[in-house]
Design brief:
Distance between the termini: 46 Å
InterPro entries: IMPase, Inositol_monoPase_Li-sen, Inositol_monophosphatase-like
Order of helices and strands: HEEHEEHEEEEEEHEHEHHEEH
Strand order of the largest sheet: 3-4-5-6-7-8-9
Keywords: Hydrolase, Magnesium, Metal-binding
Family: Belongs to the inositol monophosphatase superfamily.
Number of domains: 2
CATH superfamily of the largest domain: Fructose-1,6-Bisphosphatase, subunit A, domain 1
Low-confidence stretches: none
Strand content: 25-35%
Pfam families: Inositol_P
Protein name: Inositol-1-monophosphatase
Helix content: 25-40%
Bound molecules: D-MYO-inositol-1-phosphate, calcium ion
Shape: globular
CATH topology of the largest domain: Fructose-1,6-Bisphosphatase, Chain A, domain 1
Radius of gyration: 17 Å
Largest sheet: 7 strands, mixed
Length: 258
């Protein structure tokens, strides 16, 4: 299944690339939440091909109405993760596809066609970037750790969420090497998986932002949890915390500090 999945995702990548380099109209789902015709076109392309190739899987996708769709044997799609980057030609944007069997992660693929980087993982088989095995960093000193995060779209309208973002940065920034906000949750998880970042956290993500990245990270030796250090629940948890494992406890402690 993985080879076929990758073949289709690479084809969809051509569409993303075409959109990235063209002038495009931008629509607003909310103040900070952008969408273009390419988000919809990439999603439709993937859904069309997946439903033919993998008819037993339900398809859950960002730009679709998912109300009556049951999560079980499912393919969870983010057609363009990092739409703000896509719109502004920041080359940090990707297609993210996570395959679940009986609600458990089975295959994850994250493809950035602009930088030609394809991350993939299958349960029990490790993680790969363009065919080369990747592993998390071995850094265990929080002060030397590069941490990534994201700002929720709700920070434009919800004062509590904005306060929470600022508070956590205030606590973490002096204690770590530095903080990045590159604008694609799927790639953030892959960057922890490849050892570029030691850790990553963010609030208010959706299942399609992380469905593939969490498998790619766990297969690369990383750890994923909610903000209490418990198992991260794809559709329920407010916070995701993802690290190389070595700094996990300290990141959790800092995220909970008052
Ligand atoms: C967004 C990106 C971003 C994160 C947002 C996500 P989208 O996804 O992953 O990094 O901070 O919370 O919603 O909307 O570009 O697919
Ligand atoms: Ca979006
Ligand atoms: Ca996304
Ligand atoms: Ca998206």
């Amino acid at each position: 299944m993985k080879d076929k999945l990758i073949e289709i995702i690479k084809e969809a990548g051509e569409l993303l690339k075409e959109g990235y380099f063209s002038n495009k109209e931008v629509n607003f789902k909310a103040k900070k939440d952008l969408v273009t015709k390419y988000d919809v076109a990439v999603e439709n392309f993937l859904k069309n091909r997946f439903s033919k190739e993998f008819p037993s899987f339900t398809l859950i996708a960002e730009e679709s109405d998912n109300t009556d769709i049951k999560f079980g044997d499912s393919i969870i799609i983010d057609p363009i993760d990092g739409t703000t980057n896509f719109v502004n030609q920041v080359p940090h944007t990707a297609i993210s596809v996570g395959v679940y069997k009986n609600k458990e992660p089975y295959i994850g693929v994250v493809y950035n066609p602009i930088l030609n980087e394809l991350y993939e993982a299958k349960t029990g088989c490790g993680s790969f970037l363009n065919g080369k095995k990747i592993e998390v960093s071995k850094e265990n000193d929080f002060q030397k750790s590069l941490i990534s995060t994201g700002f929720p779209y709700t920070s434009g309208s919800n004062q509590n969420d904005l306060n929470d973002v600022i508070k956590k940065i205030e606590i973490i920034l002096p204690k770590c090497q530095d903080i990045r906000r590159l604008g694609s949750a799927a790639l953030d998880l892959c960057y922890v998986a490849r050892g570029t970042y030691e850790g990553y956290y963010e609030m208010n993500l959706k299942a399609w932002d992380v469905s593939a990245g969490i498998l790619i990270l766990s297969e690369a030796g990383g750890k994923i949890s909610n903000i209490n250090g418990e198992e991260y629940k794809l559709f329920d948890d407010k916070y995701i915390v993802a690290t190389n494992g070595y700094i996990h406890k300290e990141l959790i402690l800092n995220l909970n500090a008052k």
